[in-house]
Write a structure and sequence with these properties.
With 64 residues, this protein is α+β, with helices and mostly antiparallel strands. It has one domain. 27% of the residues lie in helices and 14% in strands. It has helices spanning 7-11, 47-58; strands spanning 26-29, 35-39. The chain has a two-stranded antiparallel ribbon with strand order 1-2. The longest helix is centred in the C-terminal third of the chain and has 12 residues, at 47-58. The chain starts with 6 loop residues before the first helix and ends in a 6-residue tail after the last helix.
Length: 64
C-alpha cells in the first residue's frame, strides 16, 4: 500500500522515530475489521505463495 502521509502505518505501529520507512509486514484483516494475523517475516520472493497459504489457513474464502 502507498502511505506517503504515514497515517496508516503509524496507526498499525509499523513506524517509529528511528525508521525512515515502515516495517515490511503483511497484516491480514477480517471482514469485521479485526486483525487476523500479522506476518513480520515477509520474504519478497515467496510472498505471493505465502499469502495464499496463510489465507487458506485462516479460512478466508476465495473471491468469486
Amino acid at each position: 500500500m502507498s502511505d506517503p502521509s504515514r497515517k496508516v502505518s503509524d496507526a498499525y505501529g509499523l513506524t517509529d522515530e528511528k525508521r525512515t520507512f515502515p516495517q515490511r509486514w503483511t497484516i491480514y484483516v477480517g471482514k469485521d475489521g479485526k486483525i487476523l494475523f500479522i506476518d513480520k517475516m515477509v520474504k519478497a520472493g515467496a510472498h505471493g505463495a505465502d499469502v495464499a497459504a496463510k489465507l487458506k489457513e485462516l479460512g478466508v474464502e476465495k473471491a468469486k
